[in-house]
Design goal:
single chain; mainly alpha; Na+/H+ antiporter like fold
């Protein structure tokens, strides 16, 4: 059964990625992306932190904590994939700057599609990634669905509004199928996962969140937005790269998948904590 399902994992990743990016594009407008980007200093700082600082933190953690090379590779691949499609929603839940999160998402996805293949060759010793092949895949599976969704939203807004919920639900179904496939075919590797790899993942989340929050400038809303957009990476893109580039090392995909799932758990914890703190602050102010 494992041998039958394992080859279907890359296809499941590709289908999920297309539906997720299409759903994102249907909810985006060019104005949403461009308006928050007028603060060039904050945008440049955000790109440098997300595109450079976070991967460097991941590399440092893999050097400081002993772990299998495949797990270290998975952590670095996850860290390199900036621009999480779910980031703006979590930013909205903590009353951060959703507009800035949307604009930054567009920039980070562009940076990821253009520079990720080259960055993998530089960041992972011994990796031999065909830059052209990976760029083509990212253009077809990431950039094209987003562009199609945005065009539909711009020209037939009513249609975009009607089909967006259905496409989003479809992407969630494919995400559930993907998680099941990855966990099922790699259950032995997951059960025996090194604790140092798990620790490195948690430290990457914590350090990235703090760096993002600290660099967000004076406005709390921008700080919250940058914190979320920095610590949570694009799990679907990292899984695509892990599953199709590092085919002979299944633990790379296992680590990238666990990080993607873990980022959602951590994001929910941050949202709940933020709401509890705001509630306590509101009670204290009322008293």
């Amino acid at each position: 059964m494992d041998e039958f399902l394992r080859p279907s994992v890359p296809l499941a990743i590709a289908i999920f990625l297309v539906t997720a990016m299409l759903s994102l594009g249907l909810d985006l407008t060019l104005k949403q992306i461009m308006e928050p980007l007028r603060n060039r200093r904050l945008v440049i700082k955000s790109v440098l932190i997300s595109g450079l600082a976070v991967p460097l933190v991941a590399i440092a953690l893999t050097q400081a904590l002993a772990m299998e090379q495949a797990l270290a590779t998975g952590l670095i691949v996850y860290a390199l994939a900036a621009g999480t499609e779910g980031g703006p929603k979590f930013v909205q839940l903590v009353k951060g700057s959703t507009a800035f999160a949307f604009g930054l998402l567009g920039v980070l996805l562009t940076v990821t599609v253009v520079f990720l293949p080259l960055a993998i060759n530089l960041a992972i010793p011994g990796a031999e990634v065909s830059v052209g092949e990976v760029v083509v895949k990212l253009l077809l599976l990431v950039a094209l669905p987003i562009a199609v969704g945005m065009v539909v939203n711009a020209r037939v807004a009513d249609l975009a509004a009607r089909i967006s919920p259905g496409v989003h639900r479809l992407s969630m179904i494919f995400l559930a199928i993907l998680f099941f496939l990855v966990i099922y075919v790699n259950i032995d590797a997951i059960v025996s996962l090194q604790w140092t790899a798990l620790l490195a993942g948690l430290l990457l989340f914590a350090i990235s969140y703090v760096i993002g929050y600290a660099a967000g400038g004076p406005a709390v809303e921008d700080r919250k937005a940058l914190a979320f957009m920095t610590f949570a990476r694009n799990g679907s893109i990292s899984m695509l790269i892990a599953g199709q580039v590092f085919i002979e090392q299944p633990q790379v995909l296992v680590m990238a998948t666990l990080m993607a799932a873990g980022s959602v758990v951590v994001a929910v914890i941050v949202v709940v904590t933020d709401r509890l703190l705001n509630r306590r602050t509101g009670v204290a102010t009322a008293i």
